[in-house]
Amino acid sequence: MLLNFLRLLVTACVSAAVLSGPVSATPAKEAPWLPEAAAYRLTLFLGNLEPLPWDQVAAAWSEPYRNSEFSSGALEWLQAKSEVDPKRVQEAIARQDRQALFAGATRLIALRIREELDRALDATDPAAARQAVQAGRELYRAFADGIKAADPEAARDIGIAWLDLNSSVGSSGVLGAGATSADREKMAAASAVISGYLTRNYLVGSFAPRETLSAVPETAALDGRAIEVPPSLPPGSDIFDQVPLPRLVLNFEERGIDETDLPLVAYGDMLFDSSQIFGSPARELGIACSTCHNRSDINQRLFIPGASHQPGAIDVDGAFFNPIFNDRRDDPIDIPSLRGLRFTGPYGRDGRFASLRDFTRNVIVGEFGGEEPTDFMMDALIAYMLEFDFLPNSMLTPDGKLTDAAPQAARRGEAIFNRPFAGLGARSCASCHVPDGNFLDRQAYDIGSATPPYAGARAGAFDTPTLLGTLYTAPYFHDGSLPTLGAVVEWFDDTKSLGLTGTESADLTAYLETVGAADDPYEAFDDENTTFRLAFSELTTFASTLDTLLPRRDAEHVILLTDTVATDLSRDASTMSNLSARPEIYTLADRLAEVGAAARAGDWPTAEASWAAFQALAAEIDGRAF
Amino acid sequence: MAIHLNRRTALFLTVAGTMALATPLAAQGRTLRLAFIPQENPEKLLGDIGAITGWLSDEIGVPVEGFVTIDHAAAVEALRNGDADISFMGALPFVLAEVEIGAVPLLSEVYRGAPNYTGRIFVRRDSGITTLADLRGRDIAFADPISESGYLYPLAEFEKAGLVEGPGKADDFFGRIFFAGGYQQAMQAMAEGLVDAAGVSQYADLLLTPTQQAEVTWIAQSDAIPSHVVIARPGLDPDVQQRFVDAMMKLNEPANRDLLRYLYGPDGYVIADSAAYDGVRDMARKYGLLR
User: What is the mean pLDDT of chain A?
Assistant: First the structure.
């Protein structure tokens, strides 16, 4: 068991290492789901999408969920491990009957829990009984949030029953020593508590129709109460920051200006990392601008089933984030980098927003269902995002020419890049990716990269993307359909009949890779310069805007700041290497929460005193905050 | 998880060493066999074993095979009858195996800079519980009755405080005692308010969500518990044993540290110090596990 722990601990530490979003609300690394429990949770999640992606529901049962530790999908797993028949689930999927799918899948999980309870009771040795109890408890996870939200008392009773059950299976001891026998009476009583609840709530003859699919127990669903089950992402989701973490290049910082002297920018920096500006479910899930745009760039690992067709892509106007904004089109896009944002307008992959301000408001209010941001918030966010600079690249001059540091192949490629091609309408690559214009022309073209959505559609034009920094932003094109820059060259060669020789293709690719390169593309960390250190530094910088906001008695923006920063400080403490300093970070977060509480009460002297206490404590623990 | 192994089930994974078998030992056809204790998912462990035994074969110059046993007892049995040469093992089963078959400690795992750790008593920050005495009549979850940091060592703190008289007397002090099945389950039970305290490894709070971690604290800490150990069967060829140890110590080098994740994920290894396990030996005697 200790070995198990170390493995879990490693998992926790691995997650700590990859949480890394300096101030993103720290997501928790989930324990692995058993295949059928994962399929059930995916079914609930996908079943709430409109239109319902039946092919993905079918895959949820037939294939291992993304990043699963199990090589088999739920159906294969059930065949090997269980007597429970998944026929009803399969039939419901074939008929595309949502209610029948919910009923069949819910019963299946309940029956599996019962099967494991029976196995535990029938087991002749403690190890087998314990395995069955653990399996049953892991399957119960599939229902746990619904029961907790609807019936906390039952959730508690069942929680105690699992503890009772596990405590009474006996022990094989260690190498024969310390063995104890099972207390079968206690086991039966505990099992009956769980089994009885399942019978009344998850093994009923027919389930009431569900507007929203969730694990809420049937008795609670029937009594018509509004039950808020906290939003969750299904198994296979990944909203951790990418590793390695992209390096953030801020214009003011490179010039040596301290962010604490730019309160509007610092507040915008905070908002960029704040899930508080979004509505539910993004807010509860800790999703912020920086979740997709890690350090102004991209997040190559981001994946949400039903919303992402591949890692690093997401459909932000689907059913999940803001149903009223659902365009009912399955059109996830590859997350674009925001580097050099002030040079890359218009905004959106198709350039549909001329104004960055309009685009940003649409993200907050439209795509993620947030409340209307204040003018101050918009000013701050824009001020911050306008500081995003491209990555320095010593192989490129400011006007887009190669320097002596560039390789020879890239030099040959540069000539090809500037060569007019008949297939490009006598234009060159450089006609659109203008070297002295940051390798873009701020125009949109239909190059045939998108399948027309209907006959005669003129809807496939996309903005010319910059080529700067692209060596680190694979895959390419609006839908991320091309995995490498070499594949991009090949695509143009094929579709535009460029007639490149193999050498020319290689040279052109080398040129793109040189233009897209950077001197230091990623953040560098070490034992003390940790991801938490970066988060601590940023969060205390954000807090410094209180020096501006408190004298203005600006309660609204003080509260938004303290809610964001206090929460993130506390959560990010879980990523610390210096575990002994964690309690101090919790205390620091408490001080900031006190500022917010006082601002809510209009008690400005207390708010200022708590802010002073925060500053004093932050200075004191600065050297230990890693 | 629902992996149903039985004592006779050994999930064998033979890994062909990739190095040319040029050394005298290899020429003799010797194969070094490693026993692994199962984790939650033996399927994953098999993949890990493949990766590490391949590397070890290259380093040691003899074929290395790994296999998963049902539990510690099966691993010790494999060492006793020669089916395994080396095994990964917890501290408590090691001190028992030492007495039973003369197992030899080779290497100790290092975690966060030390070859040892502690057990702690965790409570919720808002519980008002600040001392062990506050837990009189309250409910506690431990991990497992034969776990060092998940029961024996944390319980010893209550003995030291004069609150529990000794082994078998814990019921007189606490309300209810649960064995939750693991550190995470015990911590979760405490964090969710099902019980008032959890007696588990010092690092177990890292298994909670970040929000829960901020909501819990600890009120007592045990003596140091030596970490897991890599042991050899008595009579293993000293030269092979030394090569194995040398190879394992290379895992501490930056270039090889990635491989540690295939071995239960310690930060590294140190040469085992048998004396470091005296405390575990004493604890095992006290609880009647060792005579």
Answer: 94
Interface contact A163-B287, CB threshold 8 A = no
- From chain A residues 587-616, the ones with a CB under 8 A of any chain B CB are 589
Q: What is the pLDDT of residue A224?
A: 87
Contacts B93 to A, Cβ<8 Å: 174-175
Domain spanning B11-114+227-286: CATH superfamily: Periplasmic binding protein-like II (3.40.190.10)
Closest CA to B109 of B2, B284, B261, B268: B268
- Chain A environment of B70 (Cβ under 8 Å): 127
C-alpha closest to that of A162 among B137, B179, B208, B1: B179
Q: How many angstroms separate the CA of residue A141 from the nearest CA in chain B?
A: 12
Kindly state whether A132 is in contact with chain B, defined as any CB-CB distance less than 8 angstroms: yes
Q: What confidence score (pLDDT) does residue A29 get?
A: 62
- B117 forms beta bridges with B225
pLDDT tens digits, A151-166: 999 999 999 999 999 9
Superfamily of domain B119-223: Periplasmic binding protein-like II (3.40.190.10)
Domain with CATH 3.40.190.10 in chain B: 11-114+227-286, 119-223
pLDDT band for position B30 (cuts 50, 70, 90): confident
What pLDDT band is residue A527 in, cutting at 50, 70 and 90?
Answer: confident
pLDDT at A31: 77
Can you give the pTM of this predicted structure? 0.90
CA A88 to CA A100: how far, in whole Å? 8
CA distance A610 to A620: 15
Question: Residue B180: its chain A contacts at CB < 8 A?
Answer: 163, 166-167
Asked whether the beta carbons of residue B2 and residue A34 sit closer than 8 angstroms, the reply is yes
Q: Which pair of structure tokens corresponds to residue A232?
A: 């969750």
